[in-house]
Design goal:
Blueprint (H helix, E strand, L loop, with lengths): L23 E5 L3 H7 L4 H21 L4 E8 L7 H20 L7 E5 L7 H11 L8 E8 L1 H14 L7 H7 L10 E4 L18 E4 L9 H12 L9
Parallel strand pairs: 1-2, 1-5, 2-4, 3-4, 5-6
The structure holds farnesyl diphosphate.
Farnesyl diphosphate binds next to helix 1, helix 2 and helix 3.
Length: about 240
């Protein structure tokens, strides 16, 4: 089933729906490498499985009503990985963009790539521009963080503001200059793979996000897990520093 497509029916009457209190969910998709290693396969195999999970989970998040989904697909630090692994992730991205382009009528949401895309090949950038132009009227958005780092995003925001002549800035100015300005802050950040950190992801936007950690490796995450995550979110009390 294509990602964020029209009319798929994976959700059931038991599926919890989200409302205005849980608009935006973000995922740190960790554990692809270990998932592959457990099967005696190369890490690239794990990323391929991870990309299938990415499509399933994002599709489902759209069905249950999230207005924004943000995924951490490639960090500014991921360039340090072996060339073959980086190439494999770029290849996955290329295929995914091609799939979106070819089947554009089946998709419902908007797509936005957040991160510094200046280092991508012109061919990839061209596809990204095309895909970002799709479904402009949609009220749902999928943000794909690629060559993304939270510190670099905040630095970029400051530079944008100073280039526009600002000498002092407000919190609203900064929020409005971030890549995620249209989606707002995530209500919950989910990290798979067992590590308890946010790894330079959505640093500014995470200020009041609920955090959810699971030992499950990303390729193993299921739509039933998303149901559990939603129930967990609604069992929490968000006080934003108040009582
Ligand atoms: C982290 O797992 C995962 C990544 C760095 C890549 C994430 C990519 C995908 C899920 C595929 C979807 C991609 C696109 C382009 C939409 P890891 O490799 O660090 O796993 P490990 O901690 O087990 O080594």
């Amino acid at each position: 089933m294509p990602l964020f497509s029209k009319g798929s029916k994976k959700s059931t009457p038991e599926t919890p729906k989200v409302d205005e209190h849980f608009r935006h969910i973000a995922f740190i998709m960790d554990g692809n490498g270990r998932w592959a290693k457990k099967r005696g396969k190369p890490r690239e195999y794990g990323h391929k499985a991870g990309s299938d999970t990415f499509k399933t989970i994002c599709q489902y998040c759209c069905e249950v009503g999230f207005k924004a989904v943000t995924v951490y697909a490639f960090s500014t630090e991921n360039w340090k990985r072996p060339r073959a692994e980086v190439d494999a992730i770029m290849d996955i991205l290329d295929h995914y963009l091609e799939e979106l382009k070819q089947n554009y009528k089946q998709y419902h949401s908007r797509f936005k790539f957040i991160g510094d895309l200046s280092v991508m090949t012109p061919a990839l950038r061209e596809k990204i521009v095309y895909v970002e132009g799709m479904n402009q009227e949609s009220d749902q958005i999928l943000n794909i963080a690629f060559n993304y780092g939270g510190r670099s995003e905040i630095t970029h925001a400051f530079n944008t503001l100073t280039a526009a002549g600002k000498t002092t800035v407000s919190e609203e100015d900064i929020a409005g200059a971030l890549y995620t300005k249209e989606s707002g802050d995530p209500d919950m950040i989910v990290r798979t793979g067992g590590d308890l950190r946010i790894s330079n992801f959505l640093l500014w936007q995470a200020a009041y996000a609920e955090l959810y950690f699971t030992d499950k490796l990303w390729p193993d995450l299921t739509t039933a897990d998303v149901d559990d995550i939603i129930r967990d979110f609604y069992s929490r009390k968000r006080r934003y520093g108040g009582l």
